[in-house]
Structure formats: C-alpha cells, structure tokens
Amino acid sequence: MKKDRFDTDYEVGQDNITKWGMDMHNPVFFISAAAVIIFIVLTLINPVGAKKIFDASKGWTIQNFDWFFMISGNLFVLFCLAMIVLPVGKIRLGGSESKPEFTRLSWFAMLFAAGMGIGLMFWSVAEPVAYYTDWWGTPLNVAAKTPEAARAAMGATMFHWGIHPWAMYAVTALALGFFAFNKNLPLTIRSTFFPVLGEMTWGWVGHIIDVISVLATIFGLATSLGFGAQQAASGLHFLFGFENTIGLQLIIIACVTAVAVISVVRGLHGGVKILSNINMIIAVFLLVFVVLAGSFTNFFAGLGKTTSAYLEYLLPLSNWIDRADEKFYKGWTVFYWAWWISWAPFVGMFIARISKGRTIREFMTAVLLVPTALTIVWMQAFGGNALLQIQNGIGTLAEKGLGEVSLAMFQMLENLPMTGLTSFVGIILVLVFFVTSSDSGSLVVDSITAGGKLDAPVAQRIFWATLEGLIAMALLVGGGADALGAIQAVAVSVGLPFTMVMIVMMVSLFIGLRHEVNKMKVQA
Fold first, then answer.
1. CB under 8 Å, gap of 24 or more: what pairs does 295-302 form?
2. Which CATH architecture fits 27-523?
3. Can you list the pairs that 205-210 forms with residues at least 24 positions away whose Cβ atoms lie under 8 Å?
4. Whole-number Å distance between alpha carbons of 469 and 485
5. Distance CA 155, CA 162 (A)
6. Cβ neighbours for 496, distance < 8 A, ≥ 6 positions apart
7. I need a surface site. Which of 70, 163, 359, 499 has the fewest CB within 10 A?
C-alpha cells in the first residue's frame, strides 16, 4: 500500500529538553532566547545608531517592494474569499467529529482582542483625522477638509483595518489549524510547509522558520508594550495630571506584565478567554456611550456612508500602478501591509489555536467579515464623531489639529459628557487590550518553543510573558523612543521575507486541502 504523504514519524517533543521546569524545543528555544537577548543588548548600546540602521532597512523595504506587498495583500483576500465559496469550505478543522472549544461569542471576543483591539483604540480617532486634515498625505490626493475628504478618510481607514489585514491573518491561521488539527502535525509555523518541504520541515530549515516566527512575535509584542505604555501614560496625564515620565511608563508595563503572567498561568480558558470577554463588555459599554452621547443621527447615517465609502475606495486603494498619492500610499498603506504581515505568525497561530471544530467556511466568514463589520461600527462611532467635531469647530482637534497621536481619542471624548469617566474607561480598555495581546502572544511563543505542544509548562509561560515586559522596560530605560522605533522598524522589515513565506504557505495549504478533499472522496 502506498504511504500517505502526511504519514510522518515526527512526534511533538522529540527534540525537547526538560530543565528548570520547562519543556524546551532544541534548538528553537535556545536560539530564540539568545537572539532576543543579543539584539536587545546591541540596541541598548547604541539606540540612535540602531534606529538609523533599521529605519533605513524599513524605508528600503517599503520603497522597493511596495508592489509586492500590494499584490500579495490582494491575493490573500481572493484566496480567503475562495475558501468560503469552494467545496473545501465544508472541511472541519480537527475532522468531521470535532467540536468547537468556545462559544461563538467568546471566539469572536478573542479574535478581536488578539487581532486588532489595541490598534483600534489607538487609531480609531487619529487615523480618520489624519487623512481628513492632511497630517501625512490624503487618500488619492483628495483635497483636505472637504466633504469628499471626510468620505475618503473613513473609506481609507476601513481599507487599512478591514478585510485585507484579516485575510493576512486568516491565511496563516487556516494553514496552521488545518495542518495541526487535520494532519496531526505540531502547531508551529514550520508544519505549514510540510507538503512543500517534506521531511526537511523537521530539520534546520524548519528550525529557522520557527525562530524567525518567535522573534517577529517577541519584537512586535515588546514594541506594542512600550508604545502602549506611552499611550496609557499620556491618558493618565490628560486625566489626572500625572507627569508622563519613564518611571510612570515602567510602572504601567510592570502592572500589565504581572496581569499577563497571571493570565498565561491560568491558561487559555481561565485567563485569555475571561479577559477577552471582559474586554468586549467594556468596549461595548464605551461604544454605546459614544454613540448615544455623540450625534446619534450622524452615527446611523454614517454607518451606511462609511460602508459605501469603503466599497468605493476598495479597488482604487488596492491598486499599486502609477499612484499619484505616493506619500499616503507608501507612508500608510504599504507600511500597514508590512506591519500586519509581520504580526501574522503571532495572530495567525492564536486564531488557529482557538478555532478547532469550525468549518473552513465558518472560519473564513468569521475571521474576515465579522471583525470587518465590527470595525465599521467602531470607526464610525469614534472616527465619525471626531470628524463631526472638527467640521463644527469643536474642541482641540478642530483648533490645533492632530498633535500627539496617543491623545486623539481622549481629545474627542473631552467634548462628550462624563469626560473623566469615559477617559478612565478608555485607559482601562487600552491596558486590558495590552494584557490580552501579551498573554495570547506568550501562549503562541510557548507553543513554538515547546515544539508545537498546546500546553507548555507553567514555568515556560512565565518566562516568555516576563521576558516581553523586561524587553519593553529595558528599551524604554536604555533608549526610549529611539530603541522602540528600532525594534518596530525590524518588525516591519521582517514583513518582506514573511510575505514570501506566506505565499509559499498559501500554495502548501492548497496542496493540503486538495489532499484532504481526495481523501474524503475515497472514504465516501
């Protein structure tokens, strides 16, 4: 009998070393930990020089490969939409008898919290205001501060936060979930290349893929912790007058890290799920308040306008040929695409981890369309209110424009009732979103560095969650914005090679799905 191509003698943990209460995959764990420490030390020695070098790398990547990012983003969207309508949509992650671990509501909450929750808090006001006022280029060179500029601002914002980024996450997540749950391969990035690489997947080629994935996740999370601490500190300064110092930011990171450690110790069900559900409750409360306290009529009228603006600008903004708005196109869109792709290993693996038991059709519909619909509502409530205030000459944003980006949401809220309460809720929401990002990211890194195990030892979870906080603290103390900017530039630069990885991953997934369909036909 011919051996099935997915028959493999590989066992999760076969190369693992058990020590200090941890289950460490050799050599992925050790290379990843050493690389992180060496990189941080070198960055701290010369943060300004490091930022200059890595900014140059980021600029070169965006300048020369804009077309590649744009084409790839469009391909990911088309591939994901095809998964919904093709017969492969009937395939269930984990097999025909598999049942979902989480209710749909908890599933949606975790998708949203891990994927983009914190980004929406940061940019839901700042980004539409930036486009409307020409803070850094306008979409398709639309004249700033005009009715068309307001429409373009909402359409372009949704373009950056809608179906395209979620398709990038979905390709990675589906590949990971399918090969782990349907083909019994370890839940690591390397497993998605098995149809292409064969047995080389378990050798040094696979080790390199997993190490790159760990580094992208760690650097992305550490950067977010650092910038998030700065945003939360800005909110505390705005609300209570606390001086926005490095000391205050360090206290915030320490608190977030402590809660994240507790969450990862409790695990997916006892930690991440509970925090994500709490997050969604708080987010819904703030959303409803902004809708009711702002212009209720403008919100509901704006929902249709924002949706139609998104659809209107979807194709023009997806184009990469002869773009006249190069400042906007490369400064915003291409940067975003590189940034989303650099986060795909982390978010994709987390989405895969929580999606066992879902059909591919249900999975793709939820991962692509549900967050996009929720984002339209959120952006219209916050961004739409901010644009209305500017158009009516109300508040700081109207008087001074977009200054400190981290304060934009609070500057919008100060023109609504109960500013103190809503701003405090906003700060809490920012912090809890950071905790959910940190602990879900730690669970992902735990899985990769344990060789694909779904339940790494507690000591290992604590190690990675603590390391993320310590990296962010060290960067703030040693180099401040320069050091954080250097790490962010590295994360964006990683987007280029990982885009190539995702293209191969998509081909590999197609081969795997075709194999599964053929197997189902034989069994029938």
1. 295/385, 295/388, 298/384, 298/385, 298/388, 299/380, 299/381, 299/384, 299/385, 302/154, 302/380, 302/384
2. Up-down Bundle (1.20)
3. 207/27, 207/28, 207/31, 209/501, 210/25, 210/28, 210/32, 210/448
4. 16
5. 10
6. 61, 65, 68, 69, 338
7. 359
- The C-alpha atoms of residue 59 and residue 389 are separated, in whole angstroms, by 35
- For 343, phi then psi, to 5°, come to -90, -10
Give bridge partners of residue 18 from the DSSP assignment: 23
pLDDT in tens, 220-269: 777 777 777 877 888 898 888 888 888 888 898 888 888 888 887 887 77
| In the chain, where the domains are located | 27-523
Residue whose token pair is 């053929």? 518
Q: What are residue 17's DSSP bridge partners? A: 24
CB 84 within 8 A of CB 367: no
Give the HSE-up count for residue 381: Cα atoms under 13 Å, Cβ half-sphere.
21
Examine residue 27 and say whether the peptide bond preceding it is cis (omega within 30 degrees of 0): yes
Residue 425: which residues within 8 A CB-CB, separation 6 or more?
282, 285, 286
Express each pLDDT in 418-461 by its tens digit.
999 999 998 888 888 778 777 777 777 877 877 777 666 778 77
How many Å apart are CA 25 and CA 81, to the nearest integer? 36
Determine contact, residues 150/156, Cβ cutoff 8 Å. Answer: no
Q: Is 44 helix (H, G, I), strand (E, B) or coil?
A: helix
3-state secondary structure of 92: strand
**359 secondary structure, DSSP code:** B
The answer to whether 145 and 129 have CB atoms below 8 angstroms apart is no
